[in-house]
C-alpha cells in the first residue's frame, strides 16, 4: 500500500507538471510516457526497499505518544512541560506561546531534547507566563501539535501559606573517586536514610555530570528506590569522565554528594597509537551535509597526532565508511554527499606515526533534513481535529519568478568554509523554488556562482573551498521555472579564519593542598588562546620523569582537583592548552607539593574546670581540642558571662598560649560561666561548651584542690600509665604523695595500685583487665579524685566539682598491634638510640618525647630528636651515667598512640662501654713497624694496615721527636718513612701513630746496639779531588737481568725484562724491526709491539751494557725457537687480536633526533667468547627500564632503544664491548631538538674508538732448563723480609732518589 500510495502521488505530480508546461489536455502518448516513468520508478523503489528494508518501516510522520499536560502553579516556582514524540526521520520540535514562537535565546526558557523526549522548562515563573503553550513537531512527512495551558497565580492572592515537610536526608554510604579505562564499566551508588520516611514524599534522585543532567539512555542506567540510588555506566568512554553529582531533591531542600570519575585510554590497537577522540558533536545539519567536530586526546606518552579520519554509518545498517581519504589536522570536518531524509551516526579516529586509534563513541543519530523545511508547511483546518498539511509552494498561484531574498549573513565561519543564512521571500506557487549563491573577493568586483550543479532549496547553505584568511562578499538569488530574481544585497566583508596555530602555553601553575589524596591545581590561561577548547593536566612524582594524565577529557576551567594521589608523596604538575589544531607546549612545572589534607580551624576545647578561687579571681584549665586542623594550636581566647545572662565578654587581650589562666576582677559571691576558643594558622575554631556555674568564693579547706590534665597513655591489655598535674590549690600543707586506686564501674570495691605513695605525678597501673570497665581514683592529701575509665575508640573527659572532691570520667582505647620503644647502640656512630614506629599518624601529628613523663626540652647535652614519617628517634650523642630512667613517647592527634622504655643504671653502663668501643676503634695491622737498610746509608721504616682510606693521617717519632716526610699507598695499606742517613746517633725507639676516621693505631720499633749499620766503604778508584767526583764501580753479573716475559696490553704485546740492579751508566738497547715502543722503569725495561702481525715474527733481543761489560737476553717469536715454539704467534697474538670484543660497524658518530621520537642505536659485535655489552650515558651506566631498552641478540646484534626521547636524553653515549681478551668502547653523541626548531649541528666526540686491555695479563711460561732469577714484582712487596745489614750491600728500590 505504501508503494501504491507513492505511485499515485508521483503520477499526480507528473500530471500537474505536464499540465503547467504544455497547458493542454493529456493525450494517450502522454499517459503512456507517464506509465513508463512510473514503471521505472516502481523498479527503483523496489531496489530502494531491498537496500533499506530495515529502515523503511520507520519512515512515518510525527506522532505524540505523550501529550502536554496543563499546570497551575504559583509565581517564583519552576515548571516543566514534557511530551514524547515518534516519527522518522526524527521530527523537529518548535515551541509557541499563544501562537508566537518562543525566543529560547533569552535564557528565560530552557528547551531540552533527548531522543524523542522534549521538554520546556520555566525556572522561575511569573504571572506573565500564564498562556497556552504549543509544541509543533514536523518532518518531511507532515506535522503534529500538542497544547497545554499554564496558569501562574500570585502568592499575594494566596491566603493559605504552604509549609513543606522538611525531610532530612543523611548519606550512610557514598561513592568515591572512580578510576577506570575505556571499555570497562563503573557503578556509583549511595545509601541514605530519610527522616521522616514518608511513602508519598520520597525524594527525587537527580544525577549530573559536570552540571549536565543525566537520564536513562544507552550509555547511562539509573535505578532508585528504598533508600538506595545507583548510576551505572555499562560501556565507558572518555566522554563519561567528569565530576558526578547526586542531588536528592525534596520540597524542603536538597542533599548532594560529588566525586570524580576518571576514564583513561584503553589498550591501543597497536603499541604507541594515540587515544581515541571524544565529545563528537554535529553542527549545522542540512539536506546533504553536516559539520562534525570533536576534541583531541591527550598525548602525554604517545607521539604527536598527525590527523583524524571521520567515519559515518547510516541508521539501520552496520556499515561504517570513511569520509575523508587523507587525515585532516583540525578537529572539525564538513561531511557532504548525504541522502536527504536519511539518518546517520558519526565517529572519529586519530592517527600518529605508530598507527590509528580506536574509534570514538559514535554520535547521536542525525537526519539529513532541511532545517527550515517545516516552516514552509501550511495547515488548513477541515473541521474537528482534521488538518490538511501541504507546502506553501504547492498552493496554486500565477506563474511568475519569486521575490528577492533578504537578510543574508554568515552564521558560522571557519578556515575554508562559511555557513550562510538568509530570509526567504514570500512565495506561493506550485513550482519549486531554489537559490543561487554568488561569491566575490573583497574589492575585486568579480562575482562567481557557487552552486552550479546542485540547486539549493533551503535558505541556509555552507560554501566550501574558500581561501584561508581572505575576505569575501556573498549574495543570493531565488529562482523557479519562470525565472530568477534579482540578487540580494551583498553581505558585508566576511573573513575566513586564519590558521593561528595551537594556543600558547598556560601560565604559572599553583598546587595547593585539598585532602589527603587530592590536590587543587590552578593556572593562568594562555596569552594566545586561539579558539581554546580546554586543558589537559599532567602529574609526576618528584624526581621521576614518569608523567601521567590527570584528566583524559579536556577541562574547561582554570582550576582542577587531581584525585587518587598517594598520601605523603610529593608531586609536580603541568598543564597544556588545546584547540582544534592540537596541544600547546607544556606550562612550567608547579612547585613540588606533598599530598596532605588542607589546613582547617581546630575543633572546640572542652572540659573547662575550676582549679582555685580566692574570692576575686579564678584559675581555669581546659582540654586542648581533639582535632588541631593540621596545624599547631597557637592561641586560646576566653570569654565570660554572669549566669543567667546571654552576653559574652572576652576576658584577655592579647590571646593566651597556655591552658592555665587566672581570671581577675571578679565579683565575690557572683556566679560565672566560661567558654574557650582555639586558633591555628587556618583561623578561629568554634567555642567550647560553656562551663558549669562557678561561684566566686574563696577556697579555705585544708585539703588540696583537684589535680588537672589527668590523661592516660601506653594503654595495653594489662597495663596503663596514668598522668596528672599538681593541684594549684595545695590546702594547709605541702602534698606528700599520691595513691592510685581502681575498681570496676558501679562497684565500691577499690583496689590500691600502689601501696606506697609516689611523689611523682605518673604511675603505671598493672594487672587489670581491659575488657572490664574500670574506675580509678587518685588520692592526694585528704582529698580523693575519682576516675572512671571506659574502653572506647575515642578519648573524652568530663569534669565536675562536688564539694571538695573532683570526679573525672575518662574514655581511653587499647590499640591492636601497638609498637614498643626499642633501645640500641648505633654500630657506626656509637650513639644510644631510642626508636619508635607509630601505628597511627594523622594530619598534624607530632612525637612528644619525655623522661620520667616530663617533656624533654633541654637539648644542650647532645640529645637529638629525629623524625621521618611515622618513625621517631631519641638520640644521645654524649650519654653519661646519669641518663638512666623511663623514656616515653606519645603521638599527638591520635587515639592515644604511646609507648615507653626504662633504662636501668646497669644497662646504661653496658651501653656506654659498647659506645666507647665503637667510637674509639683500633685500626688492624697486617704487619707492625719494620725497617730495611737501603743503599747509601739510608733506612726504610714501614708498616702495613688491613685497610686505610684516602683521608688517613699519621705521625712518625724518632726518640720522641716528630719527623716529616712519610708517604702511604691506599691500595696496599703501606705507610713508610725513608731516613736519608742512619747513624749510631739515631738509635733508639721509633713510633708510628695512625688516625683514619674514628680509628687509631700505633706501632713501635727499638733499634739499639749493632755497630755495622754505619760502615765506611772505601772505593777502589781514588776520588778526583779536582772535579769533586768519587766513583764506586759495581760489577754486573749475569743474574742482574731476568729472562724476557710477555704481557698483553691494550694495543698489542709487551716484552719485559726485570732488572735486579741498575745504574745510570747502564745502556739498554732492543733489537727487532720497527713499530715498537721502548720504555720501562729503572727496575724493568720494556718494548711494546703495537698491533702485532705475521711479519712481526722473529728474534727479539735486549742488550744491557755498562762501561766494562754487556749482557744480552733473547726471545724467539718466530715459531721455531726453543723458547716459543708456537705459543706466542699461534696462540697469544690471535687470542688478543682476533678474539677480543670488537665493534664491527653500524653505529654513527652523531645522531640528531626530534623530541618524542624513538631512537635506536644498533650495531654488530664479535668476539670469542661472546663479549658482554654495556651502555653508558655521560659516564654513568644506563639502567634498563620502560624507556631505555638494552638488548643483545644471538651474541652479536647489540642495540639501545630510547622510547619517546626528551631534551634530557641529549648527551654522550658509550658502548662497551668486552671479553676476557679485551675489548673496545665507542662514543656516540645524541642531540635532541623540539618540533619546529632548527636541527642543531652536533659535533662528534673527540675521543676515538678506545681499545680495552685484557682483564688479566697473559704470560708466556719460560723453559725449565734455563736457570734465571725470579722476575722482580711490578709492585713493592707489602711485607718485605728483613735483611741483615752488611758492608757494600745494595737493595733495589722502585724509584731512584737523588
Using only C-alpha atoms, the radius of gyration works out to 50 Å
Percent strand equals 35-45%
- Helical element count? 4
Average pLDDT over all residues: 78
Shape: flat
Distance from first to last alpha carbon: 127 Å
Helix content: under 10%
Tally the beta strands.
94
User: How would you describe the oligomerization state of the chains in this entry?
Assistant: single chain
Strand arrangement in the largest pleated sheet: 56-55-58-59-61-60
Features:
4 helices; disordered N terminus; FN3_dom; Myomesin 2a; 6% helix; six-stranded mixed beta sheet; 1298 residues; mainly beta; 43% strand; immunoglobulin domain
Describe this structure in words.
6% of the residues lie in helices and 43% in strands. It is mainly beta and 1298 residues long. The strands form 23 sheets. A six-stranded mixed β-sheet has the order 56-55-58-59-61-60, with no helix packed on it. Strands 86, 88, 89, 92, 93 and 94 form a six-stranded mixed β-sheet that branches. Strand 34 (471-480) and strand 35 (483-484) form a beta hairpin. Helix 1 (2-22) runs antiparallel to helix 2 (28-51). It starts with a helix and ends in a 46-residue tail after the last strand. Mean pLDDT is 78; it is low at 1-58, 382-386, 390-397, 770-777, 779-813, 1010-1015, 1121-1131 and 1258-1298. Residues 1248-1269 have a biased composition (Low complexity).
Amino acid at each position: 500500500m505504501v508503494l501504491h500510495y507513492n505511485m499515485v502521488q508521483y503520477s499526480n505530480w507528473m500530471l500537474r507538471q505536464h499540465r503547467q508546461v504544455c497547458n493542454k489536455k493529456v493525450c494517450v502518448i502522454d499517459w503512456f510516457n507517464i506509465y513508463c516513468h512510473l514503471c521505472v520508478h516502481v523498479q527503483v523503489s523496489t531496489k530502494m526497499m531491498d537496500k533499506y528494508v530495515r529502515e523503511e518501516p520507520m519512515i512515518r510522520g510525527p506522532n505524540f505518544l505523550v501529550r502536554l499536560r496543563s499546570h497551575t502553579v504559583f509565581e517564583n516556582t519552576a515548571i516543566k512541560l514534557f511530551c514524547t514524540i515518534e516519527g522518522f526521520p526524527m521530527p523537529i520540535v518548535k515551541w509557541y506561546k499563544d501562537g508566537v514562537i518562543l525566543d529560547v535565546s533569552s535564557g528565560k526558557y530552557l528547551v531540552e531534547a533527548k531522543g524523542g523526549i522534549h521538554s520546556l522548562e520555566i525556572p522561575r515563573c511569573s504571572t506573565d507566563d500564564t498562556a497556552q503553550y504549543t509544541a509543533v513537531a514536523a518532518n518531511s512527512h507532515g506535522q503534529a501539535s500538542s497544547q497545554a495551558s499554564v496558569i501562574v497565580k500570585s502568592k499575594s492572592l494566596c491566603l493559605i501559606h504552604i509549609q513543606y515537610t522538611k525531610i532530612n536526608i543523611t548519606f550512610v554510604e557514598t561513592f568515591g573517586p572512580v578510576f577506570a579505562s575505556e571499555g570497562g564499566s563503573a557503578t556509583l551508588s549511595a545509601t541514605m536514610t530519610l527522616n521522616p520516611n514518608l511513602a508519598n514524599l520520597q525524594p527525587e534522585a537527580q544525577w549530573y555530570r559536570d552540571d549536565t543532567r543525566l537520564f536513562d539512555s544507552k550509555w547511562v542506567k539509573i535505578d532508585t528506590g528504598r533508600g538506595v540510588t545507583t548510576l551505572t555506566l555499562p560501556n565507558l568512554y572518555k566522554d563519561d569522565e567528569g565530576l558526578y553529582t547526586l542531588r536528592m531533591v525534596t520540597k524542603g531542600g536538597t542533599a548532594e554528594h560529588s566525586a570524580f570519575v576518571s576514564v583513561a585510554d584503553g589498550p591501543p590497537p597497536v603499541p604507541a597509537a594515540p587515544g581515541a577522540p571524544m565529545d563528537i558533536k554535529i553542527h549545522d545539519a542540512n539536506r546533504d551535509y553536516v559539520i562534525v567536530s570533536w576534541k583531541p586526546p591527550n598525548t602525554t606518552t604517545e607521539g604527536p597526532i598527525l590527523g583524524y579520519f571521520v567515519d559515518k554509518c547510516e541508521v539501520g545498517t552496520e556499515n561504517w565508511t570513511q569520509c575523508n581519504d587523507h587525515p585532516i589536522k583540525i578537529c572539525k570536518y564538513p561531511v557532504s554527499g548525504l541522502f536527504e531524509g536519511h539518518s546517520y551516526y558519526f565517529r572519529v579516529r586519530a592517527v600518529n606515526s605508530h598507527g590509528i586509534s580506536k574509534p570514538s563513541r559514535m554520535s547521536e543519530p542525525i537526519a539529513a533534513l532541511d532545517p527550515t523545511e517545516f516552516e514552509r508547511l501550511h495547515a488548513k483546518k477541515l473541521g474537528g481535529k482534521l488538518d490538511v498539511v501541504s507546502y506553501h509552494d504547492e498552493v496554486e498561484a500565477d506563474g511568475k519568478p519569486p521575490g528577492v531574498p533578504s537578510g543574508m549573513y554568515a552564521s558560522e565561519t571557519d578556515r575554508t568554509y562559511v555557513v550562510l543564512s538568509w530570509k526567504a521571500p514570500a512565495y506561493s506557487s506550485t513550482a519549486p523554488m531554489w537559490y543561487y549563491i554568488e561569491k566575490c573577493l573583497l574589492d575585486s568586483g568579480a562575482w562567481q556562482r557557487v552552486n552550479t550543479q546542485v540547486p539549493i532549496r533551503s535558505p541556509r547553505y555552507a560554501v566550501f573551498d574558500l581561501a584561508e584568511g581572505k575576505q569575501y562578499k556573498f549574495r543570493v538569488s531565488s529562482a523557479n521555472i519562470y525565472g530568477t530574481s534579482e540578487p540580494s544585497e551583498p553581505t558585508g566583508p566576511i573573513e575566513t579564519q586564519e590558521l593561528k596555530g595551537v594556543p600558547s602555553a598556560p601560565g604559572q601553575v599553583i598546587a595547593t593542598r585539598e585532602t589527603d589524596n587530592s590536590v587543587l591545581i590552578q593556572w593562568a590561561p594562555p596569552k594566545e588562546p586561539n579558539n581554546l577548547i580546554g586543558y589537559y593536566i599532567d602529574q609526576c612524582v618528584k624526581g621521576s620523569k614518569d608523567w601521567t594524565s590527570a584528566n583524559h577529557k579536556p577541562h574547561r576551567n582554570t582550576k582542577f582537583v587531581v584525585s587518587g594521589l598517594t598520601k605523603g608523596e610529593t608531586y609536580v604538575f603541568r598543564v597544556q592548552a588545546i584547540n582544534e589544531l592540537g596541544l600547546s607546549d607544556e606550562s612550567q612545572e608547579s612547585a613540588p607539593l606533598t599530598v596532605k589534607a588542607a589546613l582547617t580551624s581546630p575543633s572546640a576545647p572542652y572540659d573547662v574546670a575550676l582549679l582555685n578561687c580566692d574570692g576575686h579571681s579564678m584559675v581555669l584549665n581546659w582540654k586542648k581540642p581533639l582535632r588541631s586542623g593540621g596545624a599547631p594550636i597557637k592561641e586560646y581566647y576566653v570569654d565570660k558571662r554572669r549566669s543567667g545572662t546571654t552576653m559574652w565578654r572576652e576576658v584577655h587581650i592579647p590571646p593566651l598560649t597556655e591552658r592555665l589562666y587566672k581570671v581577675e576582677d571578679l565579683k565575690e559571691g557572683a556566679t560565672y560561666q566560661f567558654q574557650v576558643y582555639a586558633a591555628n594558622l587556618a583561623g578561629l575554631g568554634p567555642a567550647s561548651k560553656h562551663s558549669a556555674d562557678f561561684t566566686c568564693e574563696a577556697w579555705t579547706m585544708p585539703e588540696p584542690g583537684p589535680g588537672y590534665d589527668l590523661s592516660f597513655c601506653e594503654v595495653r591489655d594489662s597495663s596503663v600509665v596514668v598522668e596528672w598535674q599538681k593541684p594549684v590549690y595545695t590546702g594547709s600543707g605541702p602534698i606528700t604523695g599520691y595513691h592510685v586506686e581502681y575498681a570496676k564501674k558501679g562497684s565500691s570495691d577499690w583496689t590500691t595500685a600502689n601501696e606506697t605513695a609516689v611523689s611523682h605525678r605518673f604511675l603505671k597501673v598493672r594487672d587489670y583487665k581491659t575488657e572490664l570497665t574500670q574506675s580509678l581514683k587518685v588520692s592526694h592529701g585528704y582529698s580523693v579524685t575519682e576516675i572512671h575509665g571506659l574502653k572506647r575508640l575515642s578519648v573524652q573527659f568530663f569534669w565536675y566539682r562536688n564539694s571538695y572532691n573532683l570526679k573525672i570520667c575518662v574514655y581511653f582505647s587499647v590499640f591492636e598491634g601497638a609498637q614498643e620503644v626499642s633501645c640500641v647502640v648505633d654500630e657506626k656512630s656509637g650513639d644510644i638510640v631510642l626508636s619508635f614506629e607509630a601505628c597511627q599518624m594523622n594530619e598534624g601529628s607530632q612525637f612528644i618525647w619525655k623522661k620520667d613523663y616530663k617533656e624533654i626540652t633541654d637539648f644542650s647535652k647532645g640529645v637529638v630528636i629525629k623524625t621521618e614519617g611515622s618513625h621517631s628517634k631519641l638520640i644521645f650523642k654524649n650519654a653519661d651515667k646519669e641518663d638512666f630512667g623511663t623514656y616515653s613517647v606519645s603521638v599527638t592527634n591520635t587515639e592515644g598512640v604511646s609507648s615507653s622504655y626504662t633504662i636501668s643504671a646497669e644497662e646504661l653502663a653496658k651501653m656506654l662501654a659498647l659506645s666507647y668501643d665503637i667510637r674509639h676503634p683500633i685500626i688492624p695491622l697486617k704487619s707492625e713497624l719494620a725497617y730495611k737498610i737501603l743503599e747509601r746509608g739510608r733506612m726504610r721504616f714501614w708498616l702495613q694496615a688491613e685497610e686505610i682510606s684516602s683521608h688517613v693521617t699519621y705521625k712518625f717519632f724518632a726518640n720522641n721527636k716528630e719527623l716529616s716526610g712519610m708517604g702511604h699507598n691506599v691500595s696496599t695499606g703501606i705507610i713508610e718513612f725513608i731516613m736519608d742517613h742512619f747513624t749510631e746517633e739515631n738509635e733508639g725507639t721509633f713510633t708510628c701513630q695512625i688516625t683514619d676516621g674514628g680509628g687509631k693505631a700505633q706501632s713501635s720499633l727499638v733499634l739499639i746496639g749493632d755497630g755495622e749499620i754505619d760502615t765506611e766503604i772505601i772505593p777502589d778508584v781514588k776520588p778526583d779531588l779536582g772535579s769533586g767526583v768519587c766513583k764506586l764501580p759495581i760489577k754486573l753479573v749475569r743474574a742482574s737481568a731476568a729472562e724476557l716475559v710477555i704481557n698483553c696490553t691494550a694495543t698489542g704485546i709487551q716484552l719485559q725484562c726485570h732488572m735486579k740492579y741498575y745504574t745510570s751508566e747502564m745502556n739498554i738497547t732492543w733489537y727487532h724491526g720497527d713499530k715498537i715502543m721502548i720504555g720501562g722503569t729503572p727496575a724493568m725495561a720494556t718494548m711494546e709491539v703495537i698491533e702485532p702481525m705475521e711479519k712481526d715474527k722473529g728474534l727479539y733481543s735486549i742488550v744491557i751494557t755498562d762501561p766494562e761489560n754487556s749482557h744480552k737476553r733473547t726471545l724467539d717469536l718466530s715459531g721455531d725457537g726453543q723458547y716459543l715454539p708456537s705459543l706466542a704467534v699461534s696462540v697469544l697474538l690471535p687470542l688478543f687480536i682476533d678474539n677480543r670484543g670488537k665493534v664491527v660497524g653500524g653505529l654513527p658518530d652523531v645522531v640528531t633526533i626530534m623530541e618524542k621520537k624513538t631512537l635506536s642505536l644498533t650495531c654488530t659485535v664479535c668476539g670469542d667468547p661472546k663479549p658482554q655489552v654495556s651502555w653508558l650515558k655521560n659516564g654513568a651506566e644506563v639502567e634498563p627500564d620502560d624507556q631505555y631498552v638494552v638488548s643483545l641478540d644471538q651474541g652479536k646484534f647489540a642495540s639501545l632503544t630510547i622510547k619517546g626521547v626528551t631534551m634530557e636524553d641529549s648527551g654522550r653515549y658509550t658502548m662497551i664491548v668486552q671479553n676476557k681478551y679485551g675489548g673496545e668502547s665507542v662514543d656516540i653523541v645524541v642531540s635532541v631538538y623540539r618540533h619546529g626548531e632548527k636541527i642543531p649541528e652536533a659535533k662528534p666526540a673527540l675521543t676515538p674508538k678506545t681499545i680495552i686491555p685484557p682483564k688479566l695479563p697473559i704470560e708466556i711460561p719460560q723453559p725449565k732448563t734455563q736457570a734465571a732469577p725470579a722476575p722482580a714484582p711490578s709492585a713493592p712487596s707489602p711485607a718485605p723480609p728483613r735483611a741483615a745489614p752488611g758492608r757494600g750491600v745494595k737493595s733495589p728500590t722502585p724509584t731512584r732518589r737523588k
